[in-house]
Amino acid sequence: MLLARRPRPIHSRGAVLDGWLTLRPSPHLTVAWSQSSPSAIRVVARLSRSIGLPDGVPDVYGLALRGVIDGRTVDLQLSATGVGVPGRFLLAPHLTPELATYSSILPVRTDRGPMLFCARTIQTPGLPADLPAIRQAVRREPWRLRLYAASPRGRWHPIGEIALDAARSEDDPTLRFDVDRHPVPGTEPYGWVAALRQPAYRLAQRRHPGTRPRGADAANAEGPR
What we know:
By secondary structure, the protein is mainly β. 13% of the residues lie in helices and 35% in strands.
């Protein structure tokens, strides 16, 4: 049933949001974006329900973000999980997106060893469960989240804040995120992690021929919205 969905086999229902990522230098993080990048980066995000259950029923939310750093597209893909260990590796359904912790689940390679990312709400406009109402809520008041990094079993350290303050009227079926092709500066995917993800990436691309990654130009636009 999931495979029959078009254009996405999972995360088929989503809302495209625009906003800013403000970076925070951290002694616990050596990746390049925390040291030499501009302090504020324009981002485009997609909030989605992975299973596609009806509004009002708990679902596993996904939050994907794209920005441009030093002329390069950078993607983050996060899913609703727990916070600690093993919860940060386990998907968790929630009634509304503001209640979720969003984790990358699978680690990336850095000079200091494997690393995970996560995001948690710090200020909410009172996000409802249905996507059209979420768009309206974000337009009234920004959805603010804090971005963290940690070793797979370590403590979460804050590395930035996300403010999503605008919403597009419709979902974008051509918007595709690929953390293997567009990693965070200073990180790279482990081979085994990329091998796990590629079948899903290929399936999504095959079900929407002609799709190209988009959103980088919009994310790189100057000036607040």
